[in-house]
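Severity: low
Component: inverse-folding endpoint
Summary: output formatting inconsistent between runs
Steps to reproduce: submit the following structure tokens with default settings.
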């Protein structure tokens, strides 16, 4: 039986371990933290299970959805399926919802019915979609998303209310610096594919329960083991085998998947492979602000888009009503602030107060300015900056039995759960067994 070590228990590491276990390997998954999940996991605050970042998945996340089902997750019970939409509260922006019609009719009908957009805006969006399809969602030379939108003559209203928030949500990089080609890849697989691919999927359970916990059970059921609270401090070859060191304990394996963040992987692999690409990434933070109100407080919809404006100290691109996802969290709102460097510089208390006042204003509900408690959670290196022409390393390293897994590896996608899962599955398949 082939023994394989997977170093790192985020979604990429869990995906690699599940793939290897299903292929018949005996897997040991090492995770330095006490719990699996990495940058997408549950944390407990005031006795309430929260995520370290609110996430939206897409129907286009085919590998993620397949993997969830493989480990026994019922996605109908654990994910709220909503049609593609960009809804702003109380006329503060547009109201765009696609009906459940075959593609591309769903987009056309949603555009026809949209409120808050002028005829010029709707025609501009229709031209973008038509031209992008004709171009097969590809451009000859990568550029910024802002430059792409300018080429396509997108109106200022569309940029502010649709393209900017979608770009920031998908790539966690401002349009001025974000890769147009990667953005087009996401649009190709969502707006440009079947209708269900554009659905927005919001987890109704915490992120740990959604996948990492189920993955751990699956791995153990296939004879593997999970070792949490154990940081791998060394990795080197012993003949044709790989020696993994955890403090003073060394264990040998036939192969190893390194599924830790790029900067950590560079330190662990220094002297084994060329780590230049691993060290070249810049990073963007994502912040989620949780605000607990009286359980009777609820929004009309599960989530809304928000107009963020750093100049006016209005932070956040989306607000989620957690009570509509889990009745036990009634009255809990979650506001996501992507690319949040400037926001978190204000300090958590000041940021939470600013967000609460913003919610009270846009929803015209003064009581929202005074939550019972707030919690700000920032992942300072949530994703890499997804810039034009960025070079990302492949899964394979050139060394037999050593592969990489992570959302930063070469992919059509930005740093998303889908990119992590795809990379993990590919890494698991790249290991030669037998």
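Observed output (run 2 of 3):
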């Amino acid at each position: 039986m082939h023994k394989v070590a997977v170093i790192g228990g985020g979604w990429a590491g869990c995906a690699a371990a599940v793939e290897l276990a299903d292929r018949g390997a005996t897997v040991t998954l090492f995770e330095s933290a006490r719990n699996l999940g990495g940058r997408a996991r549950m944390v407990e605050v005031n006795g309430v299970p929260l995520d370290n970042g609110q996430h939206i998945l897409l129907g286009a996340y085919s590998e993620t959805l397949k993997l969830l089902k493989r480990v026994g997750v019922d996605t109908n019970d654990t994910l709220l399926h909503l049609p593609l939409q960009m809804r702003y509260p109380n006329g503060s922006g547009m109201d765009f919802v696609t009906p459940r019609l075959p593609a591309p009719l769903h987009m056309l009908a949603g555009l026809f019915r949209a409120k808050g957009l002028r005829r010029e805006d709707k025609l501009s969006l229709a031209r973008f979609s038509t031209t992008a399809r004709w171009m097969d969602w590809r451009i000859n030379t990568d550029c910024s998303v802002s430059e792409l939108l300018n080429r396509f003559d997108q109106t200022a209203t569309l940029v502010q209310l649709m393209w900017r928030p979608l770009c920031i949500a998908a790539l966690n990089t401002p349009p001025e610096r974000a890769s147009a080609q990667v953005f087009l890849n996401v649009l190709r697989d969502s707006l440009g594919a079947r209708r269900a691919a554009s659905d927005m999927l919001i987890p109704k359970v915490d992120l740990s329960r959604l996948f990492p916990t189920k993955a751990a059970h699956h791995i153990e059921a296939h004879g593997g083991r999970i070792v949490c609270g154990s940081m791998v401090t060394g990795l080197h070859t012993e003949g044709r085998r790989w020696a993994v060191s955890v403090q003073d304990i060394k264990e040998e394996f036939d192969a190893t998947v390194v599924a830790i963040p790029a900067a950590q992987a560079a330190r662990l692999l220094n002297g084994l492979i060329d780590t230049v690409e691993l060290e070249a990434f810049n990073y963007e933070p994502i912040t989620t602000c949780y605000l607990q109100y009286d359980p009777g407080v609820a929004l009309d919809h599960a989530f809304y888009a928000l107009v963020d404006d750093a100049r006016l100290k209005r932070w956040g691109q989306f607000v989620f009503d957690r009570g509509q996802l889990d009745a036990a969290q009634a009255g809990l709102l979650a506001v996501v602030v992507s690319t949040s460097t400037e926001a978190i510089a204000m300090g958590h208390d000041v940021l939470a107060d600013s967000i609460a006042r913003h919610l009270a204003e846009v929803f015209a509900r003064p009581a929202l300015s005074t939550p019972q408690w707030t919690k700000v959670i920032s992942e300072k290196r949530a994703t890499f900056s997804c810039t034009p022409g960025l070079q990302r390393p492949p899964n394979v390293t050139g060394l037999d039995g050593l592969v990489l897994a992570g959302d930063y590896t070469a992919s059509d996608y930005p740093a998303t759960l889908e990119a992590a899962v795809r990379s993990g599955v590919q890494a698991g398949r790249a290991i030669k067994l037998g």
